[in-house]
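Worked Example 4.2. Consider the chain below.
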Amino acid sequence: MRTAVQGSATAGSKGFRRHRAATLTATALAASLVLTACGSGGPGDEDGKAGGELEVWVYQDASTKVQEAAVKRFNEKSDIKAKLVPVPGESYQDKMRSAMGTPNAPDIFFNWGGGSISNFVEEDMLVDLTPVLEKDTAFKESFIPAILDEGKVNDKYYGVPMRGMQPVMLFYNKDVFEKADAQPPKTWDDVLKLVDTFKEEGVTPFALAGTDAWTELMWVEYLLDRIGGAEVFNKIRSGDSEAWGDPAVLKTAETIRDLVDRGAFGKNFQSVNYTSDGAPTLFAKGKAAMHLMGSWEYSNQQSNQPEFAENGLGWTTFPPLPDGKGDPKNVVGNPTNYWSVNSKLKDEQREAAIEFVKTAADEAYVTDLVENAEVPATSDAQDKLAKHPAPEFAGDVYDLALNAPSYTLSWDQALPAQQATPMLTNIQKLFNKQLSPEEFVEAMKAVK
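Applying the procedure from the previous section yields the following structure tokens:
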């Protein structure tokens, strides 16, 4: 599961990515929403919570200590206390969806914005935070606008940024490039020439963990953005399934097929994984020249291949395509993670919950994120990044997000689960040549 844990070099940070793509099936989602008929109680009601207590759910990982410190600071000043409930990452998404709409639902909870909470918004389970942000402009302006906007559903804010940013970046192996006397690509023509160059060198041009469909999704996300602009996917995520028929989608699928046919990913990418470090190890060992991956790749390599991370790991942006409509500064990936507030709360508890959510913009909170090797989504974090464990990399990640005209949330989180699951299946079939580009387009138009 792709969570926004920017730099903690832990085995746990890898595990997030594995489960991020394991979205619920439509049947499971429907079952969870049926539970809304059970009703819900506020804190201190029949749900067994202590009176005046706010239950705060967070994805359990190495970054939880930042939220633990925030709860402690909040409780020192608030009459209504917050209780942090770390939920194991393996089961977080399922538990969250199953609990919402029941007396056991959290009062405040961690999520991915977009499609991850859209069903809750439809069922009126979340507090619309738009009036809060409009009233407290300083709070709203504390966050990078493109990141804050990804907490919107139906043009209203339901999420507040609370962890680090994770854009998808093009990483490259400096040693492999040096041996081939090559430079990182700046154009699509450069990419195609590098494919030929590294094939001649006996090196796979791009590491790709083809057993994990979400790694292939990154290629589709960036190609569609660069070819058609961010507007194409914005139409898709708004519910217009016919937008899959946009010419840019077909061009994207054709480009994927061309890359596969050229051998850009090698001959055995379908059997390479990410969760067991298959693709990252091939990349670090010089068996592959480049790797399109979320910014967590840096911390992953720090953990498992520290010498490579220190001396051999380079990074750059995804290049533009000829005649592409997308701005080359656009970014795809995980903007961050968000706090959302349960609408079941009574007035006093709701006010306290909103005050807790606001602590995500506090200086102490931002400082804790940086010291935990994360890159905050706040608009004034740049000066604090000098204390980041990897200040150069953190600065580049921050600039990438800050200067992005559009920051598109990973599609498998931006779309509802009942659409995300078949989308990932179809993308994997496209890469495996089980669907032609035209068949891919038709298959996606049929997804509702």
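The two ends are 23 Å apart (CA to CA). The first helix runs from residue 11 to 20. Compare this with Example 4.1 before moving on.
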